[in-house]
Amino acid sequence: MTIAIYPGAFDPITNGHLDITTRAAKLFEKVVIGVYDAPAKDILFTTEERVDLVKQSIAHLPNVEVESFTGLAVDFARKAGAQTIVRGLRIGADFEREFEMALMNKKLAPDCELVCLITNPKYQYLSSSLLKEVASLNANVDELVPKTVAAALKKKVHNKP
User: Fold this and answer.
1) Catalytic residue list contains 158
2) Which entry of 17, 50, 87, 132 is annotated as an active-site residue?
3) What is the pTM of this model?
4) Catalytic residue among 26, 41, 60, 107
5) In what order do the strands lie in the sheet with 3-8?
6) Does residue 79 have an active-site annotation?
7) Which domain holds residue 23?
8) Is residue 9 part of a domain?
9) Catalytic choice (50, 57, 87, 128)
10) Helix axes 47-57, 147-158, angle to 10 degrees
11) What is the CATH number of the domain that holds 10?
12) Is 90 marked active-site?
């Protein structure tokens, strides 16, 4: 069975993440989304909330699972039985960062491959960080995230139902 992981903070998951997930689900027999438990950036949603939002968002994809993880992505890949790490590339800066991580991961786990999927142009500008910023300034983000995420985001940033 070909298994891939798609690691990230997913704070929150966006339609761009879902696009990458859906495309990866067509390439691999099983995709495990790894929600990183302790990212080195400001997090709006708890790990449990992020896992739940991702699970709700990918419920229509039968070969995709969600787990939280800590530590190295290559260790999570080994634990999941994955041979591949999937990442999305939006802009040139993403390539540079992913290239550095890929080289380190190859050193740490030579048997683990990286597959980068180019982001759909309609999501090229979209990041969770930018999404949170504009949502906090009352922008409508309903077309950028799944409905459950939009509702959770509104509630979290504005304490509104």
Assistant:
1) no
2) 17
3) 0.93
4) 41
5) 64-69, 30-36, 3-8, 84-89, 113-118
6) no
7) 3-124
8) yes
9) 128
10) 150
11) 3.40.50.620
12) yes
